[in-house]
Write a structure and sequence with these properties.
mainly beta; globular
């Protein structure tokens, strides 16, 4: 089983306009942006559950998913083709004291859910992960 990884220097093609808009939202609203990249081996369907959260490892704080780009919300599906696929998740802010957090998707089919554990917080609150 492949485990999700945190990408330090991503090679991603995201529209500069979208990146600028997301960056502005992060600074204005204290939101956390997670760009997710996945390698698709066969054409498939994907979706994100609204029960996807960020968990501060050192408190009981949970940041809610507030917006998703380039992926459908449950119960809808989005078709994706073979190759690298990317989508962006935007969460409510983490507490200032947070230094490490986990990204966890909770769904009916837990074997299909993904987790990215021990993400080290950065000052930008923008992250890239490979799932």
């Amino acid at each position: 089983m492949d485990f999700p990884t945190i990408i330090k220097k991503p090679k991603v093609n995201i529209s500069p306009e979208i990146l600028q808009e997301l960056k502005a939202q992060v600074h204005e609203q204290g939101q956390v942006v997670v760009h997710c990249i996945q390698e698709i081996n066969v054409p498939t369907l994907i979706r994100i559950w609204p029960t996807t959260y960020l968990y501060d490892q050192h408190s009981d704080h949970r940041s809610d998913l507030v917006h998703a780009v380039n992926i459908s919300y449950f119960p809808e599906w989005k078709a994706v083709e073979y190759g690298e696929n990317s989508f962006t998740l935007i969460f409510s802010g983490l507490p200032k004291s947070c230094i490490v957090f986990d990204l966890i998707e909770h769904c009916d089919n837990e074997s299909g859910a993904f987790k990215v554990m021990s993400i080290t917080r950065t000052s930008s609150d923008v992250y890239y992960v490979r799932i």
